[in-house]
Amino acid sequence: MAYGTDIEFAAYLSARGLTVAGVPAVLRQLASDYLDATYCFGSGDVTGANFLAALYRAAYLADGGTTVLFPVTTGARVKRQKVDVIEREFFDDGADSTGFIDPVINGLMRDFLCGDVSKGLFFQSVGT
After folding, report:
1. How many CB atoms lie within 10 A of CB 76?
2. How many CA atoms are closer than 13 Å to the CA of 19, on its beta-carbon side?
3. Residue 64's pLDDT band (boundaries 50, 70, 90)?
4. Long-range CB contacts (within 8 A, 24+) of 60-66
5. pTM attached to this predicted model
């Protein structure tokens, strides 16, 4: 289920002088999937100005292509080391690569995150 409405999304874009080429409902669904996967929501009753602003920002970014919100990584990268005339090439596991993190979205979602260690480090909750 996509959060927000097409009318509110259009108002968000208009207030910022932005436009999208994609279908608003599809972009909102992609953004909702991104927020659910990244911030662990999954309920359709989430409201609040910061949440909706994060949603609409993610929807706007999704208009640039789904790989913005859901990057495709190969999992391995080629690394080279060269000393004098000796050169070696190998693959690392890519474990230090990160997915997409938008500082604006992350800042807007800050209020929904809590660091209560008894619930697990960076346990994420809504409405508390």
Report:
1. 13
2. 1
3. confident
4. 60/12, 60/13, 60/18, 60/20, 60/27, 61/31, 61/102, 62/22, 62/27, 62/30, 62/31, 62/34, 63/20, 63/21, 63/22, 63/27, 66/30
5. 0.66
